């Protein structure tokens, strides 16, 4: 493959930036990959494992001369990072982000960026419960969606070039309106994470009553919840605080459905339960038939756990 950007600067050196670095290097997609992370420990690890060609001690230094700047920090930190790098950006550079929420990132970042710099917000729909500079791997984005939410005045050539990188990394690219993105992700990612966190919290309370049985005999479904609930607390705190309206809307709908099923159980209404589960099974089968179930089993790669990062 051929070089798409001469110099790429990764701001934040965790799971997503690290996976991009591996994928870009494997594909020869950038002549030079440089990076910056806030914590000195993360920068030292990144240097030790050769994650980038060079790791700088400031974001301002890292973005100098970069053709593509990727903001890969928690969504609550995007605005401050944008303010810090803005005076140092090369004219004509593209700035993108990988945040899990789009409208609030646009509101926080766009006002800081100078004219002549192309801001193209994005979100790869791929991740694991691991984080930190050791957790990335080249195959993370393979066959996964990577959504772009360009602004009305985004430069089409710049969007095409970024799309070229995303496709070369192995992902599938699509465009979406930012508010619509936030609603869709509230359903497919944000509310499910909150439910997983809650379920594991409930089990933790119960564990004290049942003397560890809940954890010891945890079945596959609950294990999946614990994987999700091991995700990074900073990242997910920021997701919920910055996609508040959509998440609360979906959680309201979720609660109504839960009460409806709760009532069916109480009333012994087996038909209602059966019909409901038949409908949800058909949805799952539809996803598989459409080839959308790309959650390959090798995603549980070694790396720091979210809790042990930074
Ligand atoms: N993990 C996922 O499943 C996933 C998937 C898609 C998108 N995202 C999004 O990607 C972004 C990064 O997530 P990740 O999983 O790579 O996180 P991570 O915790 O693995 O890495 C985050 C990096 O940002 C750095 N950082 C934190 N605050 C900073 C600040 N104020 N200034 C500079 N650096 C800072 C940390 O040192 C770390 O290097 C987040 O916005 C997240 O919403 C995550
Ligand atoms: O597989 C996982 O660990 C994930 O939760 C990844 C996941 C998701 O919900 O699908 C999490 C957050 C992101 O913004 C994108 C992807």
TrEMBL record:
One Gene Ontology term from the biological process aspect of the record: tyrosine biosynthetic process
GO molecular function, one term: prephenate dehydrogenase (NAD+) activity
Pathway stated in the Swiss-Prot or TrEMBL entry: Amino-acid biosynthesis; L-tyrosine biosynthesis; (4-hydroxyphenyl)pyruvate from prephenate (NAD(+) route): step 1/1
Gene3D superfamilies assigned to the protein according to its UniProt record, in alphabetical order: 6-phosphogluconate dehydrogenase C-terminal like domain, NAD(P)-binding Rossmann-like Domain
Catalyzed reactions per annotation: prephenate + NAD(+) = 3-(4-hydroxyphenyl)pyruvate + CO2 + NADH
The keyword GTP-binding is annotated on this UniProt entry: no
Domain Prephenate/arogenate dehydrogenase: 6-295
Oxidoreductase recorded as keyword: yes
InterPro entries: 6-PGluconate_DH-like_C_sf, NAD(P)-bd_dom_sf, PDH_C, PDH_N, Preph/Arog_dehydrog, Prephen_DH
Alphabetic keyword roster: Amino-acid biosynthesis, Aromatic amino acid biosynthesis, NAD, Oxidoreductase, Tyrosine biosynthesis
E.C. number(s) listed in UniProt: 1.3.1.12
Family stated for the protein in its record: Belongs to the prephenate/arogenate dehydrogenase family.
Protein name according to UniProt: prephenate dehydrogenase
């Amino acid at each position: 493959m051929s070089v798409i950007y001469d110099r790429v600067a990764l701001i934040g050196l965790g799971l997503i930036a690290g996976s991009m670095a591996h994928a870009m290097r494997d594909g020869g997609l950038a002549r030079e990959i440089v990076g910056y992370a806030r914590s000195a420990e993360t920068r030292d690890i990144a240097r030790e494992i050769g994650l980038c060609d060079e790791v700088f001690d400031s974001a301002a230094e890292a973005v100098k001369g970069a053709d593509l700047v990727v903001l890969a920090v928690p969504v609550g930190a995007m605005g401050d990072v944008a303010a810090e790098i803005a005076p140092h950006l090369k004219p004509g550079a593209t700035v993108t982000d990988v945040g899990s929420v789009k409208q609030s990132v646009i509101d926080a970042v766009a006002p800081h960026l100078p004219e002549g710099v192309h801001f193209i917000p994005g979100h790869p729909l791929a991740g694991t419960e691991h984080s930190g500079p050791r957790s990335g791997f080249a195959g993370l984005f393979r066959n996964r969606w990577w959504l772009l939410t360009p602004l009305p005045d985004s430069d089409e050539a710049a969007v095409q070039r970024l799309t070229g990188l995303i496709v070369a990394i192995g992902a599938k690219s699509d465009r979406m309106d930012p508010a619509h993105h936030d609603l869709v992700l509230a359903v497919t990612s944000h509310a499910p994470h909150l439910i997983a966190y809650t379920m594991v919290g409930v089990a933790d309370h119960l564990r004290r009553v049942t003397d560890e049985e809940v954890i010891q005999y945890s079945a596959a479904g609950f294990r999946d919840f614990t994987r999700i609930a091991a995700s990074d607390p900073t990242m997910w705190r920021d997701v919920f605080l910055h996609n508040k309206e959509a998440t609360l809307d979906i959680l309201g709908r979720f609660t109504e459905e839960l009460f409806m099923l709760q009532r069916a159980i109480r009333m012994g209404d087996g038909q209602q339960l059966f019909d409901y589960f038949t409908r949800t099974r058909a949805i799952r089968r539809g996803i598989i038939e459409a080839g959308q179930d790309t959650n390959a089993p090798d995603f549980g790669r070694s790396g720091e756990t979210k809790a042990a990062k930074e």
